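Dear colleagues,

As part of the handover before I leave the project, I'm documenting each prediction I ran so the next person doesn't have to rerun anything. This entry is a single chain, and its sequence is reproduced below.
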Amino acid sequence: MGEVVAIRGAELLDNADVPTVVMFLGMLVAACVMGVLLTSGSALWTLIAPVFVPMFLLLNVPAETTLALYRIADSGTNLISPMSPYFAMALGFLQRYRKQAGIGTLMSLTLPIALSVLTAWTLLFLVWWGIGIPLGPGAPVR
């Protein structure tokens, strides 16, 4: 099923002449939404990789670049995922000092940080990609 979605998605994006940066941002948004709902990074990658890696490969984007985008999205949403065990622990610490604090209070405190992290990593990646610096030995960004 992932292969069909990847091939059809690549055809759709190619026929629509979607710019590469827009595809990157679309993947980041999709991964962020999924990241808030799933606790396990490996489970998230297991859902994302079979679709986005082949889709982006068909659009001449290396698999390493797709992985870098996934890591950006995952790191940005780890802080705000209510499914995370650390979220419950942080809520416990917060309630120790603010008795009336709840999930909404914790989310309102951590969301600006998560968005800042996500924005900073995304901008750094786009500059990195724009310059064309390799992601590692033998791992081109383009």
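The longest helix spans residues 103-131. Helices lie at 2-15, 20-37, 41-58, 63-77, 85-97, 103-131.

All the best with the project,
I.
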